[in-house]
């Protein structure tokens, strides 16, 4: 191959690489740290147990970004078992090694280890969620992803008066690793959870839940006007 032809091919390659790596000027890069750690939570009266969390929070922190943004999440494992985090519904083109499923797209992060994952929002808009993708740890290790429209664009509906995130999940009184091991060893169904939750809380109809309940009040006239109230729902059901 002649030198000039080789040079042209290298130049074309560099231009293509730049096109892939370059992000538009309005796009932002975000940096988050997810510390996997145990924390003590009580639900349904006296059912207190250590659960695996991100940053001690149940549910975990919300990731907010715009369509086109890139978010780097440094996952630091201070728990006592392997774990991965998965970005549910994010396409991750050419970036599968940051996608999360253990032993499928990446090795799990070992206790004491860390791994920085890159989340690319290339076309997603609206709400998605992230969750653990190792064993059954998604039962407590999960949170919302809210992706706003690109700067200069808007949702295809009227601007909401207010936004808040509802995450529907489940609570087991039993240790979640035991739930997982029982199901794997028996080959049967996973044990059904003890209660469903909204933002980690069982609700007024369940015993001993009033203290941490999540309450949001609305003026009724807004519901019947031509304006929109957006309620973002993320379902993190395991069963
Ligand atoms: Cu998922």
Automatic annotation (TrEMBL):
Claim: Ribosomal protein is one of the keywords in the record: no
Asked if the Swiss-Prot or TrEMBL record annotates the protein with the keyword Transport, the reply is no
Task: Name the Gene Ontology molecular function terms of this record.
Answer: copper ion binding; oxidoreductase activity
Q: Which UniProt keywords apply?
A: Signal
Q: Where is the Plastocyanin-like domain?
A: 36-150
Query: What does UniProt give as the signal peptide span?
Result: 1-27
Q: Which Pfam families match?
A: Cu-oxidase_3
| Listed InterPro entries | Cu-oxidase-like_N (IPR011707), Cu-oxidase_fam (IPR045087), Cupredoxin (IPR008972), CuRO_1_LCC (IPR034288)
Family to which this protein belongs: Belongs to the multicopper oxidase family.
Q: Which PANTHER family match?
A: LACCASE-15, MULTI-COPPER OXIDASE
What protein is this chain from?
Laccase
Whose protein is this, by species? Rhynchospora pubera
């Amino acid at each position: 191959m002649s030198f000039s032809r080789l040079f042209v091919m290298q130049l074309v390659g560099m231009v293509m690489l730049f096109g892939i790596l370059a992000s538009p000027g309005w796009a932002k890069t975000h940096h988050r740290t997810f510390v996997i750690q145990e924390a003590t939570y009580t639900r349904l009266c006296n059912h207190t147990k250590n659960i695996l969390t991100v940053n001690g929070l149940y549910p975990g922190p919300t990731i907010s970004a715009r369509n086109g943004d890139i978010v780097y999440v440094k996952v630091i494992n201070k728990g006592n078992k392997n774990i991965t985090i998965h970005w549910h519904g994010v396409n991750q083109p050419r970036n599968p090694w940051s996608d999360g499923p253990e032993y499928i797209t990446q090795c799990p992060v070992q206790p004491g280890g860390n791994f920085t994952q890159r989340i690319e929002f290339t076309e997603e808009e609206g709400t998605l969620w992230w969750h653990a993708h190792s064993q059954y740890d998604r039962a407590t290790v999960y949170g919302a992803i809210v992706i706003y429209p690109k700067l200069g664009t808007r949702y295809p509906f009227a601007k909401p008066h207010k936004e808040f995130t509802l995450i529907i999940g489940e609570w087991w009184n039993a240790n979640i690793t035991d739930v997982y091991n029982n199901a794997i060893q028996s080959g049967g169904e996973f044990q059904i959870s003890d209660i469903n939750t909204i933002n980690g809380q069982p609700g007024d109809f369940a015993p001993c839940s009033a203290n941490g309940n999540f309450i949001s009040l609305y003026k009724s006239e807004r519901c019947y006007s031509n304006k929109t109230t957006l309620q973002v729902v993320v379902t993190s059901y395991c069963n």
